[in-house]
Structure formats: structure tokens, C-alpha cells
Design brief:
mainly alpha; 2 strands; 7 helices
Length: 178
């Protein structure tokens, strides 16, 4: 905001957390808040937890949030090439004057945002729309009768090109065993 200055203080020593790192941590709070919204409503819909004491409830929520944020952070990092997120961090960091200046997108990220296509001509997604798209991958149970014999088998639908790219970036397999 123009003309508005804030002071960010921490009880940590400079050797532990520098002023620059303190500002970076403060700027990352919005990501934590988004993770909490997903944790409580959109994605996970966390229900009641049953613990005996307030300290255990706080510890449980803290560990769940920490693990959710950590997993989401790693997944976003892997999926950067197909998300609107920045994926050329070195070029973006080279353009940034200081930690308090607004982040400037790299040319690669600007091209992705303008064309709404990846470098391999796939549609670019936000993290949420990509999750929604991946959620359409389903396992169908198929049963049929041929003659007097009945057959039941399961089949996972064929992923689209963008779904397959996400699967490849995450390094997961669609083959499962029981």
C-alpha cells in the first residue's frame, strides 16, 4: 500500500533469522492462510477431533497444518510447469531489487499467463483447477456376463494430456495393486 509502512519484529536473533528472512516469512503467511482454508473447507473438510485437553487439540491442529502446508508446498513446486505459478525462480530473483519490493514475474511466467498455455502447449491451471481436473480420474468397476460366465474387473479411465503431465511431474503411477 502506498504511503504505509509497517514494522515487523521478531524475538529471534539476527543470526537465527535475518531481517530479510523475517520479511519473507511474513509475506508467506498468505500461503499458510490459504492452506488453512483448504484444510478446513475446500479440500479436506476436517471434522471434529476427539482429544482430552486443549493442548492436545492445539498440537493436533498444528501438526496437521504443518504437514498439509509442507505437502502442498512440495506438490506445487513439482507442478510449477503447468501452473500459473512462477517456475523460473532464478530469473525472477535476479530481477528483484529487495525482499520488500513487489515480486516480478519472469518472461517464462508472463508468457504462460498471457497465452494460458505451457511450453508444451497444454492448458495452464491454477492449483485448485488442476486438483479439480485430477479429481475426474476415476476407477470404474465393470461387470459383464458372457454366455453363462460373469466377469468383474476394474479400469482406471485414460488420463487427458494435462492429467498425464501432472502425473508424470509428480512421479506417481496409475498402476495399483491390491
Amino acid at each position: 500500500m502506498d504511503g504505509l509502512y509497517i514494522i515487523i519484529r521478531t524475538s529471534l536473533y539476527e543470526e537465527t533469522l535475518s531481517a530479510t528472512d523475517t520479511v519473507k516469512a511474513d509475506k508467506n503467511l498468505s500461503q499458510v492462510e490459504q492452506a488453512f482454508r483448504s484444510y478446513k473447507t475446500v479440500d479436506l473438510k476436517v471434522r471434529q477431533i476427539y482429544h482430552d485437553t486443549a493442548e492436545r487439540v492445539k498440537a493436533h491442529i498444528f501438526l496437521c497444518m504443518l504437514s498439509y502446508y509442507y505437502v502442498e508446498w512440495h506438490v506445487r513446486e513439482l507442478l510449477d510447469p503447468i501452473l500459473f505459478d512462477e517456475d523460473d525462480w532464478e530469473a525472477a530473483a535476479a530481477r528483484k531489487e529487495s525482499v520488500v519490493s513487489p515480486a516480478k514475474k519472469s518472461e517464462k511466467a508472463k508468457n504462460k499467463a498471457n497465452k494460458k498455455r505451457t511450453s508444451d502447449n497444454l492448458p495452464v491451471h491454477s492449483f485448485q483447477t488442476l486438483l479439480d481436473d485430477l479429481a475426474t480420474i476415476v476407477k470404474n468397476t465393470i461387470s459383464t456376463t458372457i454366455g453363462s460366465k460373469s466377469f468383474v474387473f476394474e479400469k482406471i479411465i485414460q488420463p487427458t494430456a494435462i492429467q498425464q503431465r501432472a502425473i508424470d511431474l509428480l512421479g506417481i503411477s496409475m498402476i495399483y495393486t491390491q
